[in-house]
């Protein structure tokens, strides 16, 4: 007796999980019910078998229609790829076994049953973030009309996997899908189709970070039918524009100003290192809010890395400029090539205002012009301080150009301009 009970329960669980399949062939429903009663006599307490599809001719597929409504977009987690949305589904099919004549029952035209008491499609979110399980709970009801039309109302917080594309962060757009399929049935058993209505947003509450710009729906048929709802999302970038983007751009523009500081102020190195550390802080903030993936990477991350490299180069150039400025002309004479460049650029300095002795700082550059009469042209003195000022001015314009090019390339890749 005990072994027979265990055998019956085991068969019952196989039917519930969908792993036990009946070869239907051309049998009608009554024949399938007889077979079901033979296999599970303890469960056949009535003439309604909730584990059998409702079609009279079981060789035809049962049509199930879905209608999706969205109440709120809860979260889009870039780090984990989790897309969380609160939805409710209206699911429709026809079950002629639960039809009746209203005139025989006090003109009752609609009735509701708990979902656990009737047949229902085991609709499942096929791309869940964590747990794969059929939708619905015992508290959900299925409403039937007198002609057997069934409507199942299911509400749930959907957590699905979404392939996050962060290339244009924080001006990015995402496409996050919800894949639904009916578990335990093949495409020849059930057909899953979306309703003609668009995704409903009647009770939708706006999200503070994302806008749903468009929705799409399609049916994918392979071994089993899938219905796909795609949500096109646009990030609201105002917060990131104010808190990250504008400060980074302004900080990038401040870096070249280090070459305009007086060399005697002793603030150049500390200024350049401060800019370098500030860029490193923003790079850390952006990196912590993005997925740890190498493909693709955010253009903003590349921009900050290039900005960091530029700030590092400016620190090195600042040190070199200060070293040239404080060199002693008595020990290190200015090379001839630097004298020619300084003379060509007409960088002049008044040695009298600096308290330098003319004998130690005067350098005469002779340029011989071949003509009818050779003439010697003497240029004013060129010192290490003169070379350092020329070097600072050159670095200033080059760094400004590098910042502009870097910013323009970033704007082009993010489609802002």
TrEMBL record:
It is found in: Membrane. It is a multi-pass membrane protein. The keyword Hydrolase does not apply. The chain crosses the membrane at residues 239-262, 269-287, 299-322, 393-413. Residues 244-349 form the Neurotransmitter-gated ion-channel transmembrane domain. Belongs to the ligand-gated ion channel (TC 1.A.9) family. This is Ligand-gated ion channel 4. It comes from Mizuhopecten yessoensis (Japanese scallop).
């Amino acid at each position: 007796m005990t072994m027979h009970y265990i055998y019956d329960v085991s068969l019952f669980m196989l039917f519930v999980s969908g792993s036990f399949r009946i070869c239907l062939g051309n049998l009608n429903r009554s024949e399938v019910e007889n077979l079901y009663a033979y296999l599970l006599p303890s469960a056949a307490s009535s003439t309604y078998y909730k584990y059998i599809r409702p079609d009279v001719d079981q060789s035809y597929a049962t049509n199930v229609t879905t209608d999706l409504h969205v109440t709120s977009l809860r979260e889009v987690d870039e780090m984990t790829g989790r897309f969380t949305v609160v939805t409710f589904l209206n699911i429709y099919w026809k079950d002629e076994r639960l039809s009746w004549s209203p005139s025989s029952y006090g003109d009752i035209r609609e009735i509701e049953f708990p979902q656990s008491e009737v047949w229902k499609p085991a609709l499942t979110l096929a791309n869940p973030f964590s747990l794969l399980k059929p939708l619905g709970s015992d508290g959900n009801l299925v409403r039937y009309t007198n002609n057997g039309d069934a409507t199942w109302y299911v509400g749930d917080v959907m957590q699905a996997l979404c392939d996050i594309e962060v290339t244009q962060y924080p001006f990015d757009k995402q496409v996050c899908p919800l894949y639904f399929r009916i578990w335990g049935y093949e495409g020849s058993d059930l057909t899953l189709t979306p309703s003609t209505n668009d995704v409903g947003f009647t009770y939708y509450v706006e999200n503070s970070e994302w806008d749903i710009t468009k929705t799409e729906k399609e049916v994918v048929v392979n071994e089993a039918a899938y219905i796909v709802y795609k949500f096109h999302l646009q990030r609201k970038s105002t917060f990131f524009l104010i808190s990250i983007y504008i400060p980074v751009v302004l900080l990038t523009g401040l870096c070249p100003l280090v070459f305009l500081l007086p060399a005697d102020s002793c603030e150049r190195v500390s200024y350049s290192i401060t800019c370098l550390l500030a860029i490193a802080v923003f790079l850390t903030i952006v990196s912590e809010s993005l997925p740890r993936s190498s493909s693709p990477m955010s253009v903003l991350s590349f921009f900050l890395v290039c900005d960091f490299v530029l700030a590092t180069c400016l620190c090195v150039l600042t040190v070199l400029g200060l070293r040239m400025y404080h060199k002693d002309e008595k020990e290190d004479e200015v090379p001839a090539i630097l004298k020619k460049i300084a003379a060509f650029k007409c960088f002049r300095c008044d040695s009298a205002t600096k308290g330098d002795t003319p004998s130690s700082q005067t350098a005469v550059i002779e340029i011989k012009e071949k003509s009818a009469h050779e003439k010697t042209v003497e240029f004013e003195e060129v010192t290490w301080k003169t070379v350092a000022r020329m070097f600072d001015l050159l670095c200033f314009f080059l760094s400004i150009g590098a910042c502009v090019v870097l910013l323009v390339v970033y704007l082009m890749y993010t489609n802002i301009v």
